[in-house]
Amino acid sequence: MKIIVCIKQVPDVTEVKWDENGSLIRSGLPSIINPNDKNAIEAALTLKEEKGAEVTVVSMGPPQVEEALREALAMGCDHAVLLTDRKFGGADCWATAYTLGLAIKKLGNFDLIFSGVEAMDGNTAQVGPEIADFLELPLLSYAESIEVGDGTVKIHQKMGDLTRVIEGPMPALITCEKELNVPRIPRMDLVFECFEKEIQVLGMADVDGEVGNFGLKGSPTRLRKVFSPKRAKAQVEFLDGTPKESSQKLVEKLQEINAI
What we know:
This protein is α/β, with parallel strands linked by helices. Helices cover 29% and strands 24% of the residues. Helix 2 packs across helix 5. This is Electron transfer flavoprotein alpha/beta-subunit n-terminal. It comes from Desulfoluna butyratoxydans.
């Protein structure tokens, strides 16, 4: 069994800045593996232990993303692939999924693709499903448990108070919820070994796509404005009187501010 895990390196901060194109300014920011993607890594490594799967981790971004890939190798992944090229810069969800999809096609021969449900710096939850669409794969999303059978895979998906069971053929793509597992802490011996492993680097010329579909040029969406919402100052007013009188006063106050 061969598993590909798509991960993203994200800023480890609560306040971030964006350039005029709506692209995240990463320079000088501490970075981590997107927490939800660690759940995807852990799911793949669990299958590696149970079924002898081979795990390849893939990420797109600037050269510094190598740090995230090294951490994934330290957790236990077997291979790592870095997609990096200036032409990939400024990609939205669609262009990111297009690039990752081409790279996965190039790698070939896989049974499952795992990704986190969403990245903490965008919260779109679109890249995983769009990769599945690009590769024409069954999509099993929001997985809280995963069971692999003979040529099939089954997940449990939480829907409010209900749980939906979804089963599909392999190969397939699964997006992993944080409730799926608790990501492991890398063993010290694997931390040392991860720096001895070679990371495969692919650029635009290596993935054979249409130039106009990469990066900012290939992105059909544009961020017009990104900002932190200002907190409204709360004002408390007590309404005196009997319950009937205070209720009437409350209605009048709400009508004054057009709340009702």
